[in-house]
Recover the amino acids of this structure.
């Protein structure tokens, strides 16, 4: 399947999710590594960075001027995914957790050697976004991510500069767009097309899930506690921000941590 899960955040409220995200992946995939690409100007010995490293690997990426920080946070996970040689890396969102192992095992189990796996391309079929795919569960050997993201081995600033004028399929590809316009799905579609125009090195896996039933999602937030505790839900896409919506999220917290007496201060990263 994969060797490592990679997520990313900037120094905003999104970093609050790191403890529960790392805990969830370790709960269901205890042999896999979990890494966070953290876009921040904090230093290696910063107290919060040290706290974050109690949950998994945290790799710091300095904030680059001229590019909106939320856009950097989206792309940092892709950049980090290209740094682990032959390891198979799976990319996920910082506000998404698995609620069981079966779904992730099923979709990532379709990955073929030396090919990029995308999951959920059917979501955009027949729409203006056809050809894109959700970033969740995209999986490949790290050296494939490197070929796609940074084939010329550019320094971080130069890499972002190379993405400032991207326009292959839509206007959302350029990394200097405002965060509400920029789409890493759009940029990844363009970069992957440049890397493999005939798609011979790509495997598209369908989710084969009824997300309205099988997922707990911020777009239709509802939880059946019996289904949750029986491991019937596949995925949780959390409400945002975490700390503001903690009371509604709490049943998932109890399920992930295996405790009903856990406090908010133990779960939500502060600092």
């Amino acid at each position: 399947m994969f060797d490592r899960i990679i997520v990313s955040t900037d120094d905003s409220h999104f970093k609050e999710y790191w403890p529960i995200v790392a805990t969830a992946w370790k709960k269901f995939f205890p042999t896999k590594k979990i890494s966070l690409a953290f876009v921040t100007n904090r230093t290696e010995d910063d107290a919060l960075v040290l706290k974050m490293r109690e949950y998994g690997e945290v790799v710091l990426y300095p904030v680059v001027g001229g590019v909106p920080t939320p856009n950097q946070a989206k792309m940092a996970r892709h950049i980090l995914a290209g740094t682990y040689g032959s390891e198979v890396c799976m990319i996920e969102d910082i506000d998404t957790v698995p609620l069981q192992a079966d779904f992730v095992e099923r979709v990532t189990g379709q990955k073929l050697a030396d090919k990029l796996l995308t999951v959920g391309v059917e979501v955009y079929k027949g729409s203006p976004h056809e050809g894109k795919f959700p970033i969740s569960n995209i999986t490949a050997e790290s050296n494939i991510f490197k070929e796609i993201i940074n084939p010329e081995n550019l320094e971080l600033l130069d890499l972002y500069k190379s993405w400032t004028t991207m326009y292959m399929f839509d206007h959302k590809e350029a990394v200097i767009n405002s965060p509400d316009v920029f789409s890493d799905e759009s940029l990844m579609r363009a970069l992957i097309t440049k890397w493999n125009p005939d798609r011979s090195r790509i495997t598209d896996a369908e989710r084969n899930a009824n997300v309205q039933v099988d997922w707990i999602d911020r777009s239709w937030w509802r939880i059946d506690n019996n289904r949750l505790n029986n491991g019937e839900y596949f995925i949780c896409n959390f409400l945002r921000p975490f700390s503001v919506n903690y009371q509604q999220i709490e049943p998932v917290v109890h399920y992930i941590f295996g405790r009903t007496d856990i406090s908010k201060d133990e779960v939500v990263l502060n600092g």
The chain has a mean pLDDT of 97. The chain has one domain: 4-209. The first strand starts at residue 4 and ends at 10.
